[in-house]
Design brief:
Layout lengths: L1 E2 L8 E2 L10 E4 L2 E4 L4 E2 L1 E6 L13 E6 L13 H4 L1 H10 L1 E2 L2 H10 L5 E6 L8 H13 L3 E6 L5 H7 L5 E5 L5 H8 L3 H11 L4 E8 L7 H12 L15 E5 L14 H11 L6 E4 L2
Helix pairs in contact: 3-4, 8-9
């Protein structure tokens, strides 16, 4: 048996067994990423789609996804590659793309406006070793690395990546322990620790999806934006009030089709409240 140390779950795995994320397994007594180099999704995307509003706007980035995720968001739009049962099926169809191959593709696409590689679509940190190894090669080629993540990982994992990551979009999905624990199957404290450390090392933007009846109160967004504004020691000497926040609209998806899409007016109201603490607040899906 071995223990996975990537996230708060600390999955204890017998030989051949996979963790909750569906992308890490026990092999010869050690935890290894079964998703290493397995790519299910590949596209040349606008950087704004990550979403990043204040990092090289107008550029394109090669976006790569694998499979697996350590959260269980009932509204997941990428559940076919993220949730573990679906992830196992996705793994069977995934293309084997070693770090050298993905980095070389990023370089070949430079003439089309590509600035580097974004690790996205599923939760990339469940195969952080692949992110690290690929990002190192991309950086050596003079290109940029972007990480789109739920932030549910240890600071040790973050430390492995920070030398090579230029920008992150991190989900801060809500600001109550109840929401993270009982709805998402996550750990808010781990995400907050991850964000607090990440902003010291690279450009960071945050995203909060507003789900009706769950995290849509004015009190919660006020507390969330106030906490972000208080983040100390961000990269480039900026204060936490300069960390961009994307407040986005929910649409019924997957296992959460029991409620309507978020009211557009509510998104705008919550954004105005957040602007009381933060300089850069953006609305999405409206």
């Amino acid at each position: 048996m071995a223990v996975c140390e990537v996230c708060f779950r600390h999955c204890r795995l017998e030989e051949g067994q996979s963790g909750v994320c569906g992308a890490r397994t026990c092999r010869e007594g050690s935890i290894v990423p079964s998703g290493y180099g397995k790519i299910t999704s590949l596209a040349l995307d606008p950087i704004e789609k990550k979403p990043l509003a204040r990092f090289m706007p107008g550029s394109l980035i090669l976006s790569a996804g694998s499979y697996g995720c350590n959260l269980r968001c009932p509204f997941c739009q990428n559940y076919s590659i993220s949730w573990s049962d679906a992830a196992r099926r996705a793994a069977e169809e995934a293309e084997d793309v070693p770090p050298e191959k993905l980095a070389a593709l990023a370089v070949r696409l430079r003439d089309r406006g590509n600035i580097g590689v974004a690790f996205t679509y599923n939760e990339p940190l469940v195969s952080y070793e692949y992110v690290r190894d690929t990002a190192r090669l991309v950086r050596a080629a003079g290109m940029r690395n972007v990480l789109v993540t739920n932030g549910t990982a240890s600071l040790q994992v973050l430390e492995e990546l920070t030398p090579f990551i230029d920008a992150m979009n991190i989900d801060l999905k809500g600001f109550t322990d109840h929401y993270y624990r009982d709805v998402l199957g996550g750990d808010r404290a781990m995400v907050m620790d991850f964000i607090r450390e990440a902003v010291k090392h690279c450009h960071v933007e945050l995203t909060t999806l507003i789900v009706p009846g769950e995290n849509d109160s004015e009190e919660e967004i006020r507390a969330l934006s106030s906490w972000v504004a208080g983040l100390p020691g961000t990269a480039g000497g900026r204060g936490g009030e300069e960390v961009p926040l994307h407040i986005t609209r929910f649409f019924p998806r997957f296992h959460m089709t029991d409620r309507p899409a978020t009211d557009v007016g509510q998104i705008y109201r919550l954004a105005e409240i957040a602007r009381g603490s933060l300089r850069y607040v953006y609305t999405g899906n409206c």
